[in-house]
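Q: What residues go here?
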């Protein structure tokens, strides 16, 4: 009889350990799925972000060009700096 009792205890303990390990694996799998879902969501948002940026209006561009010309006239900018910034503004319009 003691042999059967010992076998039952060992078998029960092994069953419990197996269930505990499986629960841990299930939890890890669920966490990994959440991480994957969040990464996919962030990737999707990152792809959409550049498309959401609105081009500068022509009024904003004209105001920037006027300000830039004023800085050139005051001697704050060199002609090369002015030309480079002017090109950037014109490309964004």
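A:
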């Amino acid at each position: 009889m003691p042999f059967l009792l010992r076998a039952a205890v060992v078998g029960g303990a092994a069953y419990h350990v197996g269930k505990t390990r499986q629960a841990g694996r299930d939890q890890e799998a669920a966490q990994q799925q959440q991480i994957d879902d969040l990464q996919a969501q962030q990737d999707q948002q990152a792809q959409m972000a550049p498309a959401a940026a609105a081009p500068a209006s022509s009024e904003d561009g004209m105001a920037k060009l006027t300000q830039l010309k004023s800085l050139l006239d005051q001697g704050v900018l060199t002609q090369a700096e002015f030309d480079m910034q002017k090109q950037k503004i014109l490309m964004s319009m």
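A: Context that may help when evaluating the design: Residues 1-53 form one domain. DSSP finds three helices and no strands in the chain.
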